[in-house]
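Intended use. Records like the one below are meant for learning the mapping from a protein sequence to its folded structure. Do not use them to infer anything beyond what is encoded.
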Amino acid sequence: GREMKRLTLFALAITLIATGFAAKTPYQAVLQHSRIRGRTHGPNVCAMQKIQGTDKKYFTNCKQWYHRKICGKPTVVSYECCPGYEKVIGEKGCPAALPLVNIYKTLGVVGATTTKMYSERANLQEEIEGPGSFTFFAPSNEAWAALPTEILDALVSNVNIELLNALHYHMINKRLTSDDLKHGASFPSMYQDFDVHIHHYSNGIVTVNCARLVKTDQHATNGIVHVVDRVITAITNNVNSLIDNDDDLDTLRVDLISLLREFAGSGSYTIFAPTNEAFEKIPPNTLTRILGDPVALKDLLNYHILKNLHCSESIVAGTPLETLQGTVLEVGCDGEEMTINGKAIVTQRDKLGTNGVIHYVNELLIPDSAKTLLELVEGSVVTTASKLFKDAGLTDHLIGFETLTLLAPLNDAFKDKSLAMTPDLKKLLRNHILKEKFSSKSLYHGQELETLGGLKLRVFVFRNRNSSVYVNRVPVVETDLMATNGVVHAVDVIIKPLRKS
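Structure written out for the chain above:
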């Protein structure tokens, strides 16, 4: 059995290599993978992963396939005809190409029957049956059903203007296959040439205005149809004006807008915009301190901005994404919820502007560099030490203006020790705080470091072990957690004075 399994994997690898060269875009690569997974069921069968309890389906890559999870939720595999093919009674798989008909009829073929009905009502039928070459991003039936009733009523009660405009915004006056939908591209729609914005992610997901393409590349005699999972609306504002006009972002507005002006024209960003509620959750003195410290404030704001544009639909698993502040945020999802650093704090998503996308968060994201030493250790792996530093009356040092280095023992270092505060323990803790800020790069062999308690510690650098830097023979295990007023290095055990030799 094992040998057989090996051979199948080997055969799979060969097929992937052989066909891999044809896979141009990330979407094509994922489709290819689904095709290979489905081919035992016959020609042109694709394996889809469906999130249990929802109607969301995905073509998937190897990783998702083996985890059998999307957004942390288990998936069921369904075998369906690959885009463009259909079943034939009595034959295996999906041997027949779907009929080549005009776009109006194709909407029925791909199951976008609500879009087809609205096209008829809005007198668009004649145009999409006629000559030309169009791309139609057709909202699925579920997409129409998900629209708030009042929006749908407004569209449908005004079919020859509003509904027609809405449908025209889903159309482009030329034929675009999924290969033509390149990341970051935009195309003028047939509604007053307002652009639609394409994002084509490395995991194979393609979005138009943040709506995901769920069926692609259905060719028609006069164009091509892609089914999308949302009804999209025209984007006319940049993110600055979106933020400027939203009362829910009052607290943040002035600072964020001035920051965004600096790079308004230079690319597309993702902004996690903290709502007023997010600011209300922060202790007032912390907020006052950050607002009064230009460096910390800039770090705080930059930590809410990702270097690239990520629609929520592009996230199917936790991914570390780089912020303008230089560190990463873990952006993921849990079922329907979008998460940041594991917390479901995103309240509204995909407010798209011409130069970026905004997701609202109801908690402030504070990078280490905007925290004091005390705030930093309280939220990190050295919680026992942080409590002891406070008990020992060292709080003022850890929130003050002097820059210090904290050598914080990991929680395990205190496992069998009494944590009652004594003069000896107080003295011991003072000797874990250095009088200056030393990053790990500035530590060298034989260096002497002076502590708040007056003890001299010695640095040893060994090149041959996992942890190369030792202080008084104690290994430094996690380094360079930078706070506003210093740096934290975690050590394995409690540091003791060296015996005189």
